[in-house]
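Notes from hallway chat w/ T.B., transcribed later so I don't forget. T.B. wanted the structure written out for a chain they're using in a teaching module, and asked if we could keep both sequence and structure tokens in one place. Agreed to drop them here.
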Amino acid sequence: MITAENVKTYIEAALPCEHVQVEGDDGRHFEALIVSAQFVGKNTVQQHQMVYKSLGDRMKQEIHALSMRTLTPEQWAHRS
């Protein structure tokens, strides 16, 4: 069974991130907060596509659902 820590590791291995937080305890449904400078200049759809790409085939096989919030470092620094 895949864990939230596994998902975090997969994302960090493929996408340079300043912060990654993943939660989920059923092995198939996860929530993630990802902060990356790679998101600068990209819209939300493009940012999410980058995260999905970092997870590759795991999104088709192991991970049933991933709800995510993606932020640039500037957005993260100014969050309320």
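Follow-up for T.B.: The CA atoms of residues 35 and 71 lie 5 Å apart. Might be a good example for the class.
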